[in-house]
User: Fold these one by one.
Assistant:
Number 1:
Amino acid sequence: MPQVSLTALVAHAKAGDRVISFPTDTVPALAVRPDRADLIFATKQRSQEKPLILMAAAPNDLWSFVQGDVEAQQIWQQVAARYWPGALTLVLPASDRVPDAIHPTDPTTIGLRVPCHPVAQAILAQTGPLATTSANLSGQPPLETMGAIAAQFPEVMLLLPDELARLTSTSSVGEVGANESASGVPSTVIKWSNSTWQVLRAGAVKLEI
């Protein structure tokens, strides 16, 4: 299994030549440069009717990927300020900056999230926004450990254990340490539709909107 340094992992993510994986605050993610989202669909054996989401280190890294009137954008940003970083995915109208590869069958919307996890934050701060999804074969439960991901996806790039230890500030990294601040519960997903929010998936965040 390809376990590499943070520098190497970021370099491959930027090059768009490999799918990478890292822990998040919900379940571990598979991630790739947005315009190479086809690599994730192939790796997961995922239907192209199921979109990926854009994950970034900060809200300001994501707003250029959506479009809406001033009032709507203010509402989106207020919700983001309240729940990000965190386990909430916002599905919003996509701008023309979103590559079609992320959602080939419906390019009109895009899911956005800022994770609350030191490893995810460290990677995304250097790569910029990445197209992401949970680490599992399509239709199967999300994998929850780096070891399980390595076994299921031997071609996916992971961080070296000592890099995980350094970034999570744990004294020992095993299956628990690498994923210690993850809930194991997928993110809550809400969609902006007809000037209101629609809950698409109940998850880790209990909303007050």
Number 2:
Amino acid sequence: MKATVVVPTYEERDSLPPAVAGILAQPGAFGVLIVDDASPDGTGEVADRLAREHPGRVAVLHRPRKEGLGRAYADGFVRALADGADLVFQMDADLSHDPAALPALRAPLEGGKADLVLGSRYVASGATEGWGPGRRLLSRWGSFYARTLLRLPVRDLTGGFKGWRRDLLEAVDPRAAAARGYAFQVETTFRAARAGARILEVPILFAERREGRSKMTLGVAAEAAWRVPWLALFPPSVRRLPSPAGGRP
């Protein structure tokens, strides 16, 4: 199955090359789609160089301006599906997500055990590294808040390391997700649940970013705070997947 890893970037010129190298080193011939939002530090030029060095395995989607993580992922997903991907993965470019975990996310998708696999910090054997107590508490509270209001049996709703089967991603239609920041992660998983997806969490170690600075802002946090109850009150309509007995692997 053709697998594409969508990697959004904004000012990630130093961390992008090792992140791409890590993805390409994994078994299973993962491809990479870099989605750059006109980074002023030259990340787009670095991405183009990587595409020249790895023709057929690395591609670049240049967007004219920064519009938020959610819009970058949505455009990247559309491009990956148009390019024929059967499996689509998403991960950060800042090395907080370990590319070595990709095969563990991929196996349940190819084995027909899941439609969406989440790299989870909050299941057994999952963990975070390099965080202080305040950030750990905030992250866990955010997942608890979303899980409770949306009534989802998912431990890590705010994480961004995921793998999707093509049919689910088409049913979810990420372009219809309204969230632009990190709430996009919650909204798309909620949409997947409403589509009847089989969702599986696998443990990962989430490490503090090695390069650059966090993209979290007060506006991004505020959007997440109000978007979750909005979704609970006005749940989106999505196309239901057929039952596994109806032909899904």
